[in-house]
Structures are given as C-alpha cells and as structure tokens.
Amino acid sequence: DLGIATVKRISTRLRPATLDHLGLAEAIRWEALTFKARTGVRCQVRANRQHTRLTAEQQTALFRILQEALTNVVRHAHASSVQVTLKEDDRTFELRIRDNGRG
C-alpha cells in the first residue's frame, strides 16, 4: 500500500491532474489562482483558445515552465503582478510570462 501511494504521489507531480481534467488553459488559470493565494501576487491569464493541439508531453512541459517562471517572479523579481498569455495558431504556440518586477 505504501508503495502504491508513493507511485501515485510521484506520478501526480510528473503530470498534474488539472491538465487532464481541465486542459492547459484552465490548468494554468487554476495555477495562477493558487499562486495569488499563496504569494499575494496578482496573476492574470489570457488565452486565445480553450483547447490546444499540443501533445500531453508538450502541455506538461509548458505547465512546468510556467510554475518555474512564477517561482522566479517571487524569488527574484519581487513583482506585484504577472500576466500570462497563451497564444496558439495553426503552426505555433506561445507562452508569454511578464511581470512588473525588477530585472
């Protein structure tokens, strides 16, 4: 039982369940809300599509990049607000993270 619980915990960390249940845009919105609740930093998310054509692996990578960027905002930028933009067209996907902090 302990082994199964450990594997479940590790697999959850590898691919957040919110990606499977909500999709990338909504999972990022949820992460922004929890980020604001945890840090007090406003975080606005804009997306031009609700559903993406990215693979599960690509979505996981982008979600992890977002998490690391938000961590860096708190550690280094000391910003009071962050804007996250998701923009996808037929050929490209852009994740843009901007803050009003230093650096």
Beta-strand content? 15-25%
Q: What is the percent of helical residues? A: 55-70%
Ranges where pLDDT stays below 50 over 5 or more residues in a row are none
Order of SSEs: HHHEHEE
**Strand order across the largest sheet:** 1-2-3
> What overall form do the CA principal axes indicate?
globular
Q: Summed up, what is this model?
A:
The protein has helices at residues 2-14, 17-22, 24-39, 56-77; strands spanning 42-47, 81-88, 93-99.
Helix and strand topology:
Layout: H1 2-14, H2 17-22, H3 24-39, E1 42-47, H4 56-77, E2 81-88, E3 93-99
Parallel strand pairs: 1-2
Antiparallel strand pairs: 2-3
What would your notes on this structure say?
It is globular and about 45 Å long. The chain is built from four helices and three strands; from the N terminus they run αααβαββ. The model has no long low-confidence stretch (mean pLDDT 92). The longest helix is centred in the middle third of the chain and has 22 residues, at 56-77. Helix 3 (24-39) packs parallel to helix 4 (56-77). 55% of the residues lie in helices and 20% in strands. The protein has 103 residues and is an alpha+beta fold. The protein has a three-stranded mixed beta sheet, covered by helices on one side.
Distinctive features:
single chain; 103 residues; 4 helices; alpha+beta; 55% helix; globular
